[in-house]
Amino acid sequence: MTHLQTGLSPETIEKARLELNENPDVLHQDIQQVRDMIITRPDIGFLRTDDAFILRFLRARKFHQTDAFRLLAQYFQYRQLNLDMFKNFKADDPGIKRALIDGFPGVLEKRDHYGRKILLLFAANWDQSRNSFTDILRAILLSLEVLIEDQELQINGFILIIDWSNFSFKQASKLTPSILKLAIEGLQDSFPARFGGVHFVNQPWYIHALYTLIKPFLKDKTRKRIFLHGNNLNSLHQLIHPECLPSEFGGTLPPYDMGTWARTLLGPDYSDENEYTHTSYNAMHVKHSSSNLERGCSPKHMTRSQSVVEPGTLKHEELGPPFFQTN
């Protein structure tokens, strides 16, 4: 085992070998081959090229070196093309901190049965007079930067659940093609994470229409990982066990506290009155803060899912194996 795998469980190392083609004997050579490709893109400023950083791109593309380099290049190119999004890219930025406090995103402490981290979005909590879509996207990307420092998550990946309960047509009208394309480019094409599934719950008809609108921007593999459950939580539980989910999704865990992840990033000075002074996070330097979730804070009361568990069949564009990951 190389030092780059330090901290990984034997089970995860074996999983990386079987599923990602990760070979500790040639890990440094794989990384160097990706690094050697940087000279082919002089138009991009590669601001970070250390071994640990490049390794996450190799894992996200199953050690296909050319694909890993392409993802690395897209990561930095996306940041060059959207400079305003990444100015003051830290938790105490006013726009990012408002989005975090409002629960964008939610991050469950308990992982699913495959070791994947579960992210939540309660769409109806989007107060458009308070948070721009861009700031919500920035908060999600910042959160992923923190979480992807965990090597276990580089290998096991993530799941995203979006609850559309009470999301109004007026709110949906603000989801323009241009900002949806910005999100897809940032999450699908430019970030080194393995997304095992995106689950829509309680989606109204106009979200189905929006999904049709964005489908041309989605890769085939992404479309296969989008699950449309409606109000049928039984179909959700076929893929994510109830003991991993809060009660809003028919799970056995307590209701999700919207302030949990914000307190993790913002530190102990965070309060439910949205007043805090702690400045603790720079996306490129925080290590494993996702494992230090604080306890004992009062839940922030916000809109919750009104789902009911009903029998039914899983609605899905193309249903495949229960565990999907990005090549």
List its salient traits.
327 residues, golgi apparatus, 13 helices, Clavesin-1, globular, 38% helix, alpha/beta, CRAL/TRIO_N_dom_sf
SSE order and pairing:
Blueprint: H1 10-20, H2 27-36, H3 51-60, H4 65-81, H5 94-101, E1 106-107, E2 117-122, H6 133-147, H7 151-156, E3 158-163, H8 169-172, H9 177-189, E4 195-201, H10 205-214, H11 220-224, E5 226-228, H12 233-239, H13 260-266, E6 315-316
Helix pairs in contact: 2-3, 2-4, 3-4, 5-6, 6-9
Q: Would you give an account of this structure?
A:
The protein is of the alpha/beta class and 327 residues long. 38% of the residues lie in helices and 8% in strands. It has 13 helices and 6 strands. A 6-stranded mixed β-sheet has the order 1-2-3-4-5-6. The longest helix is centred in the first third of the chain and has 17 residues. Keywords: Cytoplasmic vesicle, Endosome, Golgi apparatus, Lipid-binding, Membrane. It is found in: Cytoplasmic vesicle, Clathrin-coated vesicle; Early endosome membrane; Golgi apparatus, trans-Golgi network membrane. InterPro entries: CRAL-TRIO_dom (IPR001251), CRAL-TRIO_dom_sf (IPR036865), CRAL/TRIO_N_dom (IPR011074), CRAL/TRIO_N_dom_sf (IPR036273). Required for normal morphology of late endosomes and/or lysosomes in neurons. Binds phosphatidylinositol 3,5-bisphosphate (PtdIns(3,5)P2). This is Clavesin-1.
